[in-house]
Amino acid sequence: MATESTDPGSVRPGGRTARVRAAVLRAAGDALAEGGLAHLDLAEVARRAEVGRTTVYRRWGSPTQLVADLLADMAEQSLPRTETGTLLGDLRANARLVRRTLADPRQGALFKAVIAAATCDDQTAAALHRFYEIRVDAWQPCVQQAVERGELPEGTDTREVVRAVSAPLYYRLLTSDAPLDEAAADRAAEATVAAARAGVFTRSAE
């Protein structure tokens, strides 16, 4: 799944502390998208954000802690789920939101960098896992409502259905240079709905 989020670092109410955090996270996102975790330097982030180095080092301490806060901020700012009244409509909205995020030059590069970093850094991996758990939690009620409407079998694993929508979009992002277009998003949603209706995501009896 994806973030499907607004740009990290958008200023929110909360005074100077919130503005400093927003500026630092925006700068960190830019730096991460450009050079990956290996080139994420706290002093450079402070320069970009136009804040004191001491502030950045005191609050975040390390690049991995900064990435963790960036992901938390992105999860906080992610757009709410769309409820259309049908499972296909809801999952198509989810897939298109993921696609827009991953197809965005800055956001797509940022997610590639975070995913790459997560393969070799446990703290980044944990932060990335938390981000996606939040996003799956936000969208799984759409699938639960489909179960309650009788669109899907009882016992459907609602979280796995949500994950299945995003999976082919991330695979395409990471393994192909083909455009990540809206048609790909719609196919992902339609394939997931077909599989869910067929019982593919029904939990096995204990």
TrEMBL record:
Keyword DNA-binding: yes
GO molecular-function term, one example from the UniProt record: transcription cis-regulatory region binding
Domain HTH tetR-type: 18-78
Keywords, alphabetical: DNA-binding, Transcription, Transcription regulation
SUPFAM superfamilies (alphabetical): Homeodomain-like (SSF46689), Tetracyclin repressor-like, C-terminal domain (SSF48498)
DNA-binding region: 41-60
Signal peptide boundaries: none
UniProt cross-references to InterPro entries, sorted A to Z: Homeodomain-like_sf, HTH-type_TetR-like_transc_reg, HTH_TetR, Tet_transcr_reg_TetR-rel_C_sf, TetR_C
The keyword ATP-binding belongs to this UniProt entry's keyword annotation: no
PANTHER family: HTH-TYPE TRANSCRIPTIONAL REGULATOR RUTR, TETR-FAMILY TRANSCRIPTIONAL REGULATOR
Name this polypeptide is given: TetR/AcrR family transcriptional regulator
Source organism per UniProt: Streptomyces benahoarensis
Taxonomic lineage from the root: Bacteria, Bacillati, Actinomycetota, Actinomycetes, Kitasatosporales
